[in-house]
Amino acid sequence: MDKITERLKQPVLPQRLAPYWCSVCGKLVTMIPIEEAAMISKVSAEAIYHKIENRSLHAIRTSSGAHFICLASLTQSVLRQAINAKNLSSPDKH
Ligand SMILES: [Zn+2]
Fold this sequence. Notes:
4 strands, binds zinc ion, alpha+beta, 4-stranded antiparallel sheet, Multidrug-efflux Transporter Regulator, Chain: A, Domain 2, single chain, 94 residues
């Protein structure tokens, strides 16, 4: 009983869409909801929308109006961010 109550308290995320054809990647990818993309990349949902606008993330919009992010583009974006952060925090050690 308690476990069920606990599960109901969890925020409900929209299901991932996979496999899904990303026309930008030109391949089948996993599409994840904005909220999950924000969680993975540790930024706000607003930042995710901003990345969609400047095309660093590939996104689709379902008929219900929900946005989904191409996981391949998100992974690349997170990697780029990590590299940039590393470059900024550890300047030349020589
Ligand atoms: Zn893509």
